[in-house]
Amino acid sequence: MGRERTGRQERGQAGYGAPGVREDRGPVRYGPPAPAPGLPVLPELAEVLATAAGSGVPEPAGGSAALRDAARAYWDRRGLHGGSEHVAAAPGTSSLLLALIAAHGGDVLMPRPCPAAWIPQARLLGRPAYHVPTPAECGGVPDPYALLETVRRVRAEGGRPRLLLISVVDDPTATVAPPELVREACEAAVAEGLHIVSDETWRDTLHRPHDTVLLSPAEMCPDDVTVISDLSGALTPSAWPVAVARFPDTGRAAVRHARTLDILTALGAFVAGPVAAAAAHALREPDAVTERARRAAAMQARVAAAAHRAVLASGALARPPQAGRHLYADLGPLRSRLAARGVTDSLELEEYLTERLGTPVPGGHRFGDELGALRVRLGTGPLLGSTPRQQMESLTAAEPLELPHVVAALNNFRAALDELR
């Protein structure tokens, strides 16, 4: 349960200049995007964006009052109350997280595995970053005892752990952390003087929302948690980058909020005006937006369950997906068959499955896992169809798994895995 530092000295953390890893290997150089929805843009949002496209007025740093108030109301409906003066917006999670890490200072801790966007931000700032193991039942939140041990060891070696990144609804594992684990991990972090950044991008993609208990860390530690959310998780298209952050209502958080705005300004990280208008509309959650999110989550639940069954049938392992549009598979049990095909690490597995499936299949090294672990994130968006018409049929069908194009895509998915049995 010792500390595990991310860095270029680890061959498993493929990136620019990583020793022993060709820079041209893999379909992405530094980190893959979030799992694609595989659905057309909601017409209502497209109309809002098009209407706003005629305005040449730029958004201010941190977002306009309209965007920030819409985000405030969005969180208020989820039990996280506060004023819009404690909200900041940026063009996507990467720039927002970069500004937050820079504003807080110190070393960064994060679970292993973790979202691909997290590691590059700490590296770009030259910040020491340490991975903490997660429990067997879920990803996104570190094991509390491993967290305490990691903090102790980092401090013993002269480090300054200041920030813990977690995702209660997780990418890449597609799991939801149990409330008791969230509470124990947050209490441990706060007791050690860590500030928590809770990435809740996927909270509105629960496959079974009425059967899943979701607890935000900000509900239990309101003075010690900053919440961030990329709206592409459930509300807006990924091609329209916008993310929002909710800061605590404390004097210390006000200083960090101001510092975050300074950094976003220095980066030129402003939300595009038309995108801000569409994002504010989505955050107000009109019927069309909520209905699209509900239908998409229900459909992804069925498709992801079918993909999960295919993974298990091949002899590989994966936790049952509970949210999002992906699952995280461990092909370690198929190591000998993969080795016969020249696949011995997650980089080679990424290349092999990407070519075989015809869609990006990022390896576990992109998410902080060891290079030798044969893990991949499998997106379910490509299973919904290759054209807008097919995708809409998948969204609206009573039995999407019976649609010919979904059947064909799942058959190809199963075949790629069955070849390794």
From TrEMBL:
Q: Per the entry, which co-factors are needed?
A: pyridoxal 5'-phosphate
Q: Name one GO molecular function term.
A: transaminase activity
Please, which domain of life does this record's source organism belong to? Bacteria
Task: Give the record's family classification.
Answer: Belongs to the class-I pyridoxal-phosphate-dependent aminotransferase family.
Name listed for the protein in its UniProt record: Aminotransferase class I/II-fold pyridoxal phosphate-dependent enzyme
| Record region (Disordered) | 1-36
**Which SUPFAM superfamilies does its entry note?**
PLP-dependent transferases
Tell me the keywords, alphabetical order: Aminotransferase, Pyridoxal phosphate, Transferase
Taxon lineage:
Bacteria, Bacillati, Actinomycetota, Actinomycetes, Kitasatosporales
Q: Residue ranges under compositional bias (Basic and acidic residues)?
A: 1-11
Which Pfam families does this one have? Answer: Aminotran_1_2
Q: Which residues form the Aminotransferase class I/classII large domain?
A: 62-368
Q: Could you say which residues form the signal peptide? A: none
